[in-house]
Design a protein that fits this description.
Radius of gyration: 25 Å
CATH architecture of the largest domain: 2-Layer Sandwich
Helix content: 25-40%
Strand order of the largest sheet: 3-7-8-14-11-10-9-22-25-21-20
Strand content: 25-35%
CATH superfamily of the largest domain: Bira Bifunctional Protein, Domain 2
Number of helices: 16
Shape: globular
CATH topology of the largest domain: BirA Bifunctional Protein, domain 2
Oligomer: single chain
Mean pLDDT: 94
Number of strands: 25
Largest sheet: 11 strands, mixed
Bound molecules: zinc ion
């Protein structure tokens, strides 16, 4: 899509998500009020109020889980002094040309430049170095949610690959021993699984990355992948076991009291952000718009009174009856709003559907007369009449049921798309047709590379955490109990 074309805002969802995912995705982001793409800087966009609400619901989840795990929220400046950025030469070489650089003050010829953070390490670890003197200063366990900036040259896509990555959280920890850092890694694995499964309703696939894909000197990394409707694999969060690699570059060390020698800290870092929302939109949305899992819905319930235009007195009663529901739901922790605009019910139903509100309560003269309400669920389009006195319990059950149903639907999609192959040509065909291939893989770099060469954008993104019955590697034939996730990645 050219930048000129982006200037026209779409008015309807004009594509099917499985046939033309990027068109569907771009339409829905704008029409549902998540963002405005017309800001005149490539791969930067304006968050609209509904988008902020949606993102913040997900952010609330990670804030709460990190708080429960006693990981403290911090904030570091977005500008990184050049000398900090250069402390890790390998990192600097990798990022210097895809960073944005800023200059402050009036002396524009001054050589000193500030890097706009592409990742947190060079802003955070020089401070860790100042904070750690003895083993008692460890562990450090903090996170921040900020923007990151990268001058992306690949094809960009909002919330998936932007030049300003907004709502990006990063956890950084430092520990006295490897054992402690191993435990920390497992904790973050558990937290991320919980976010995916219990809140976002998506069976994201965790994989282990091979050594050569990690930072030199790191112990290892795990990454999550989500399958987009077009079959492409999207990296969606990572947990990195940095070992002592960064501690050595940034001098994060302490004096061991017993042995008297200097010891480097062990570190874990993890990060994700807007891609969670991208996965929610892509996984659960349909031809009518967004569908939010209730636990991350910006608004779980919309109440829509259906007016009788000829009887103003009755209309007032229906309106009051509708508004009275709000405190009832508030008492059980469910946020609801009344859409009392004098628009046709059809128009207001449409708006609630586009925005992915999980449940709408419809109240017309009949419901009012019989002290009932009609519940409509966004995921299946089914309606059910319930007595007003039972509303609280019915709503709780319905929201739980929608949450579970969306997960089951997503799981079915993931199961259909992932298939085990022992024949490379068949695996390649499957990927060309939008599938993800699971293949036996010996963990050698040459087989990794051979798989990447089978097609444009093809990649073995990592190996599944589980072990399997031994089978021949799909490339070299040597026996292995490891299986790789192989597909077309973003
Ligand atoms: Zn092999």
């Amino acid at each position: 899509m050219t930048e000129m074309e982006e200037q026209k805002a779409p008015e309807v969802i004009s594509a099917d998500k499985f046939e033309n995912f990027s068109k569907w995705y771009n339409d829905i982001l704008v029409i549902s009020g998540i963002l405005d793409r017309r800001y005149d800087l490539k791969a930067m966009f304006v968050w609209l109020p509904y988008g902020i609400k949606a993102m913040r619901k997900i952010k609330d989840v990670w804030d709460e889980l990190f708080e429960e795990a006693d990981i403290g929220e911090a904030y570091f400046p977005l500008l990184v002094p050049r000398q900090y950025a250069q402390m890790n030469d390998e990192w600097f070489e990798g990022f210097k040309n895809e960073a944005f650089w800023a200059q402050g003050g009036v002396d524009v010829d001054r050589e000193e430049k500030y890097m706009l953070r592409p990742t947190g390490e060079p802003a955070i670890y020089p401070m860790f170095s100042k904070w750690v003197k003895t083993a008692n200063d460890l562990p450090i366990r903090i996170y921040e949610t900020v923007s990151s900036f990268r001058y992306e040259s690949k094809q960009t896509m909002n919330l998936i690959r932007d030049r300003e990555i907004t709502f990006w959280y990063e956890i950084h920890t430092a520990h006295a021993t490897k054992e402690e850092s191993d435990k920390e890694l497992e904790l973050h694995f558990k937290i991320n699984n919980e976010i995916w499964h219990d809140y976002l309703g998506i069976p994201a696939i965790p994989v282990e990355k091979p050594q050569w894909e990690c930072f030199p000197g790191a112990v290892g990394a795990r990454e999550y992948y989500t399958i987009m409707p077009n079959g492409r694999l999207l990296e969606n969060g990572s947990i990195n076991h940095l070992g002592q690699a960064y501690a050595k570059k940034f001098n994060i060390m302490y004096i061991d009291e017993n042995e008297g020698d200097k010891k480097y800290a062990w570190q874990i870092c993890t990060g994700n952000g807007g891609r969670y929302l991208a996965a929610v939109i892509a996984t659960h949305g349909d031809k009518n718009g967004l569908i939010f899992p209730p636990r991350v819905a910006p608004l779980p319930v919309m109440i829509i009174p259906i007016f009788n235009t000829k009887d103003e007195e009755l209309t007032e009663k229906i309106l009051k009856y509708s508004n009275d529901i709000i405190p009832t739901l508030k008492r059980i922790g469910i946020k609801a709003k009344v859409d009392d605009r004098r628009l046709s019910p059809g128009q207001r139903f449409y708006d609630a559907e586009i925005k992915g509100i999980p449940v709408r309560i419809e109240i017309g003269p009949k419901e009012f007369a019989e002290e009932e309400v009609t519940l409509f669920r966004r995921d299946t389009f089914k309606r059910k009449k319930v007595k007003m006195e039972n509303l609280a319990n019915e709503i709780i059950d319905l929201l739980n049921d929608i949450q579970n149903n969306l997960y089951e639907r997503a799981k079915q999609f993931y199961n259909e798309r992932q298939k085990y192959f022992d024949d490379i040509e068949k695996a390649v065909d499957w990927i060309h047709n939008g599938g993800t291939a699971i293949v036996s893989y010996c963990e050698n770099e040459s087989c990794w590379d051979a798989l990447a060469e089978k097609g444009e954008g093809f990649e073995l993104v990592g190996t599944l955490i589980d072990r399997f019955e031994e089978a021949p590697c799909i490339i070299c034939g040597s026996k292995t109990d490891k299986r790789g996730v192989y597909g077309h990645s973003y």
